[in-house]
Write a structure and sequence with these properties.
This protein is mainly α and about 500 residues long. The chain has 19 helices and 5 strands.
């Protein structure tokens, strides 16, 4: 029987030689993957015209404003099609060459491009009925347009921490320091983002102890890398960090982690949590690692990083809680009312979220299709976990009723024959994936809740603004969950 199973295993290995290459030659595979990731991103940069990524100009405005010293947004009186209510707009000082680049490349794709007429009237103080001055004011809009900068609105991106734009800040900052044209700065920012993406994804391939081919296929999935591998967006860095965090998390759970890996997990989780706090709940999964193994060195680093991330996120949210991210959809007064009475409005919010999920509401390109696939994946994940639990219970009952063989190896006994052998038994893996499933569902529901509060007008059925790209950071975890449950299920059958 053992020989027959060995022959079957060798047959499977020969049929899937590409998978064997990933597992047996990780360094060579990682170099190959890095080249593929870089080439795909370079193709995307060449293929996608300037200004065609989602919300690209409001993200670009935000980056330029940070470089000009406006880390925290303030009221502005200029407008755009997206942010058309001057009295509720916030933004910052954006370099005029960046403003001109966005206007020159406006093609009805990104409605966040500033209206040139509103800039002209803003300079004279006639764009708004509120108090306008030539310096910063806490009671009205501000107008500090100069020969180099203009006050531009970007409510929807003003909530993002500068951490979310590290690669793009380097690109635009270097380009500006060298006096390069705005369009060259734009491409330089995309190149820096692509370099960051390639490093994170390649590191993930090298770090993950198994299923490298599965993770590789996730990364090269077109919806995953295009345009996130290079786009000027806060989503790009968050997605790259999420892939790396998934690989580190799985390694630290499957194998007893060293202090180096615990520190890396804590650092990447910390950056992910403060870069885009919508995905901060994913960092909770790092807290599971110390409970998966005994005496994990450096566990305090994970807890300290988690506490620091929570405190920073709370401080940042409090700092930016005085404006609406989409005032044309939901004015600030309505957002404030929903926030203050959330406990009492929770049944209404739940019903709206449930309506949106059941009716598969989605927007933008492949919105509904992407949302549908996500929730089907969630159901498949739940089914896979339940199947593993049922199989384990059935095998345990069968073993309890069978004659005991003291020389037989106990089921689920950790294999520690070499450095890459799993040291975590299957039962704990199932517990871990249960936790992952719960965190993924909770985070997704919080995304729905945020869009209901900030983007869904009153008397609207469901939740508006749901896009499939919001769920892309969950894809690595979902795929690893499915393939690992498949492994646990059949490993239990043969144990």
């Amino acid at each position: 029987m053992k020989q027959r199973n060995k022959n079957k295993s060798q047959a499977r290995q020969s049929r899937f030689s590409f998978n064997g290459f990933f597992e047996t030659k990780p360094k060579i595979a990682a170099l190959l993957c890095a080249a593929i990731f870089a080439l795909l991103g370079a193709f995307g940069i060449a293929a996608l015209d300037v200004g065609h990524a989602p919300d690209v100009w409001t993200h670009t405005y935000r980056i330029s404003a940070i470089l000009n010293g406006d880390v925290v947004a303030h009221p502005v009186s200029s407008t755009s099609l997206y942010h058309c209510i001057a009295e509720e707009n916030v933004g910052g000082r954006v370099s005029n060459d960046i403003v001109q680049l966005s206007i020159d490349n406006y093609n009805n794709h990104d409605t966040g491009v500033v209206d040139p007429a509103s800039l002209a009237s803003s300079a004279t103080g006639t764009a708004s009925t509120t108090d306008t001055t030539n310096t910063a004011s806490t009671t009205g809009t501000t107008n500090s347009n100069t020969s180099d900068t203009s006050e531009v609105p970007f409510n929807n991106t003003a909530v993002y921490s500068p951490v979310a734009y590290i690669p793009q800040l380097l690109g635009f900052g270097l380009g500006s320091a060298l006096g390069l044209p705005a369009v060259v700065q734009y491409y330089l920012a995309e190149i820096f983002m692509l370099l960051f993406w390639t490093v994170c994804c390649t590191a993930a391939i090298m770090i993950i102890p198994r299923y490298r081919l599965a993770l590789f296929l996730v990364i090269v999935f077109p919806g995953m890398w295009f345009p996130s591998s290079f786009a000027i967006s806060a989503d790009s860095l968050a997605l790259a960090l999420s892939i790396l965090f998934a690989a580190l998390l799985y390694r630290c759970v499957l194998l007893r982690p060293s202090t180096r890996y615990v520190t890396a997990l804590a650092s990447v989780g910390f950056l992910l949590a403060i870069a885009k706090f919508a995905y901060a709940p994913l960092f909770v999964l790092a807290l599971i690692v110390p409970f998966m193994h005994r005496k994990v060195k450096g566990s305090w680093i994970v807890f300290a990083a988690f506490v620091a991330a929570v405190l920073i996120d709370l401080a940042w949210v409090r700092t930016n809680s005085w404006f609406s991210t989409s005032p044309a959809m939901v004015p600030f007064d309505a957002v404030q009312e929903r926030t203050s009475s959330l406990f009492y409005n929770l049944p209404d919010a739940i019903s709206q979220i449930a309506y949106s999920i059941v009716n598969v509401q989605g927007s933008y390109i492949f919105g509904r299709e992407g949302v549908f696939v996500f929730w089907i994946g969630i159901l498949l994940g739940a089914a896979a976990i339940i199947a593993c639990i049922v199989k384990k219970v059935a095998l345990k009952n069968s073993a309890d009723n069978a004659p005991q063989n003291p020389q037989a190896q106990k089921p689920n006994e950790p294999q520690t024959g070499n450095a890459n052998s799993p040291v975590l038994n299957d039962n704990k893996l199932i517990v871990f994936w249960c936790a992952v499933w719960i965190v993924l569902v909770t985070t997704a529901l919080l995304v729905y809740l945020a869009l209901w509060m900030q983007y869904t007008p009153a008397d609207t059925a469901g939740v508006l603004g749901i896009q499939y790209r919001y769920f892309l950071p969950f894809l690595p975890y979902g795929v690893l969950l499915l393939v690992d449950c498949h492994h646990v299920f059949w490993h239990a059958s043969n144990s």
